[in-house]
Amino acid sequence: MKKTYINGLGCISAQKTFDTIFLEEAELNEDDIILPLKAPVYKDFIPPVAIRRMAKGVKNGIVASTLALRVAHLETVDAIITGTGMGCIEDSEKFLKAILDNDEQFLTPTSFIQSTHNTVGGQIALGLQCKAYNLTYVNGSVSFESALFDAKMKIEEGEASSILVGGIDETSDYTMSLFKLAGFIKEENQGPYSVLEATTNGVVFGEGATFFALENEAKENTIAEILDLEILNKLDVSEVEDKIISFLALNNFELKDVDAVVLGYNGDVDSDSYYKNLSNTTFVNTPQVYYKHLSGEYDTASAFGLWVGSKIIQTQNIPDIVKLNALDKPAYKTILLYNQRNGNDHSFTLISSC
C-alpha cells in the first residue's frame, strides 16, 4: 500500500497562521466567548468581483487550500475532500431570513445555492478546474477526520496520488445566539475564559479553515507522514487509555514511543475530564500540547490540531503558548493526536517525521 504524506499546509484561524512560521505571532484571548478570525487579504487570492458573493467559510477555504497547494508545489489534485460541521451557515441564515422577510416570495437563489455544505469544495474545484472526485463529510466533530480517512484510503489503494483535504467551519450571529441559549458557549461577562482552569460547562467558540495537500510520495518539502487514523463513537473515560495502547500497538508503537501528544482541551469541564485523565496518568512523562485556547472550539477544530502537530514535526519545536507541561524531547518524530467532544466522536491520529 502507498503511504500518505503531508506535503502542503494552509490555515486560516483566529491566529495569524499565514505569512508566519509557527505561532510566533499568536495571541491568547481569554476575554471573548467567540474568537474573531484573523482574515488574510482575500483579494490576493480571489478576484474582487467574486469576493462579495462569498461567505466567510468559502473565502477562508479557498485561501487555505491555495496556500496548501503552493507549499506542495501542486497546480491541481486527483481529489478534493472536505469536512464541515455546520457548512455555510451564514448563507443559510440569509436565505431563511429572506423567506420570512419576503413572505416566501420574490426570493433570489444566490444564498440558497451557496448555503450547501459542499459549497467550499465546489468553489475550490471551480477555481482549479478540477473535475475529479469531490466529496464533503458532515459528521459532527469528526467531519474532518472522516474526510482525512477517505483521503488516506484512496491514496493507499492507488486511486489517487494527490488529494486536497480540509476542514472548514464558520460562525454566524443567529446560530451563535442559539448556541448560547443551549449552553454550548460560555456565558458572557464571566471571563477570563481560561481553557485549562475552567470550572463550568460550555466552550469558547471559533471558526477557521485548514487544508492539507496529501501525496503518495515523500518529497523535499514533505512535512510529515500520516501513519494511521481511528474514529470511535462513544467511550468512557476509563476506556480511552486501553484504546490508545491498542491503536499504537497496531502500528508497532508503545506509549514510550510517542514524542508528543496533542489533546483537544476546550474548556468544558465535563469534556476535558477525558484529557485530564490522560495528562495525569497515561502521558505524565510525555510532552503535552493543547490548541483550542488559540483556535476556539468548532466541529473541525481538530484540523487546526493536525496543523499544530504537523508544524511541531516540521520545525522540531513546541511553542510555549501551546505547551501543557514543561517536558521536551531532543527530537519530535512520532506525535499522537486525540480529540473528542462531550464524550462522543473520539479520534486518534498518528503522524511521524519522514
UniProtKB/TrEMBL annotation:
* A Pfam family assignment: ketoacyl-synt
- Keyword S-adenosyl-L-methionine in the entry? The reply is no
Cite the Beta-ketoacyl synthase-like N-terminal domain residue spans from the record.
Answer: 52-217
Keywords associated with the record: Transferase
Q: Which superkingdom does the taxonomy of this entry point to?
A: Bacteria
Entries under PANTHER family matching the protein: 3-OXOACYL-[ACYL-CARRIER-PROTEIN] SYNTHASE, MITOCHONDRIAL, POLYKETIDE SYNTHASE-RELATED
Protein name per UniProt: Beta-ketoacyl synthase chain length factor
